[in-house]
Automatic annotation (TrEMBL):
InterPro entries from the UniProt entry: Carb_Metab_HTH_regulators, DeoR-like_C, DeoR_HTH, NagB/RpiA_transferase-like, WH-like_DNA-bd_sf, WH_DNA-bd_sf
Keywords, sorted A to Z: DNA-binding, Repressor, Transcription, Transcription regulation
Entry protein name: Lactose phosphotransferase system repressor
Keyword Cytoplasm: no
Domain HTH deoR-type: 3-58
PROSITE patterns: HTH_DEOR_2
Source species, domain of life: Bacteria
Role: Repressor of the lactose catabolism operon. Galactose-6-phosphate is the inducer.
MF terms (GO), sorted A to Z: DNA binding
Source species of the chain: Streptomyces filamentosus (Streptomyces roseosporus)
Pfam families in the cross-refs: DeoRC, HTH_DeoR
The keyword Lipid metabolism belongs to this UniProt entry's keyword annotation: no
Length: 253
């Protein structure tokens, strides 16, 4: 196995398993740990993985995206705290857009149920979770359903969304960086997110710390487009300060 084949094997393993460790990879590919570290360094430079202490995890890209089912099993306590803190920023909003993804779904479930609220969403999971809430009206955007995320996309969803003026949008992303803004792998998803941005008076990003510094294929927003960024304490205070200099309040929970 040559170097390129080994690196492709490492990437395939990371995408299949969700994360990889240096020691396990060294055993799997019968090479030295330092060789694996060099491979991970190159893969990180190419934007395909993010290194961690002792290993790496895959970055979502045009060629790879984790499913909603996988996302519901990872970092759930952190995502729940983020969602609760984001929902606390609702203020006097009466109409809300809730993005696709597991963290936005948790935001939706954390919204108050004792006051009238209209929720617009492309997420079938969000619509299902809120459908039985007495004082919440749910508007589900039409369109093609992406099986991996169980959300609607394409021009039907964007066109319907363009007809609304929404008080507050809760948005997620596959990656957020100071240089490239908020990104996602699929152009169809990016267009729905971009339209939600255009249709909303206020915008809040909610996402776990591992998304920071990651860059995917399609840019749909800049960091400065948001009034607040809500994440967990895994994002360092120094890095949070750098993001806040671009405009939004950064909340770490």
């Amino acid at each position: 196995m040559d170097t390129e084949e080994r690196r492709r094997g490492i990437l395939d393993t990371a995408r299949r398993e969700g994360s990889v460790g240096v020691n396990a990879l060294a055993d799997l590919f019968k090479v030295a740990r330092e060789t694996v570290r060099r491979d991970l360094h190159v893969l990180e430079e190419h934007g395909l993985v993010r290194r961690t202490h002792g290993g790496a995890y895959p970055v979502e890209s045009a060629g790879f995206e984790t499913t909603l089912a996988v996302r519901t099993t990872r970092n759930v306590p952190q995502k729940s705290r983020i969602a609760a803190a984001a929902a606390d920023l609702l203020g006097d909003a009466e109409t809300v857009f809730v993005d696709e993804g597991f963290t936005p779904q948790l935001v939706a479930e954390a919204l108050p149920q004792d006051r009238p609220l209209t929720v617009v969403t492309a997420s079938l999971a969000v619509a299902t979770s809120l459908a039985g809430v007495e004082k919440t009206s749910v508007l589900l955007l039409g369109g093609r359903v992406r099986g991996s995320t169980m959300a609607t996309v394409d021009h039907w969803a964007s066109r319907m969304l363009s007809e609304f003026v929404i008080d507050l949008a809760f948005l997620g992303a596959n990656g957020i960086s100071r240089e490239y803004g908020l990104t996602t792998p699929d152009p169809a998803v990016a267009e729905v997110k971009a339209q939600a941005l255009r249709s909303s008076r206020r915008r809040i990003f909610a996402g776990i710390h591992s998304k920071f510094g990651a860059v995917s294929f399609c840019r749909f927003a800049g960091v400065g487009d948001f009034e607040a960024i809500v994440t967990d304490a895994g994002l360092s205070s120094a890095e949070a300060q750098r993001y806040s200099l671009l405009g939004p309040q950064v909340i770490r929970v």
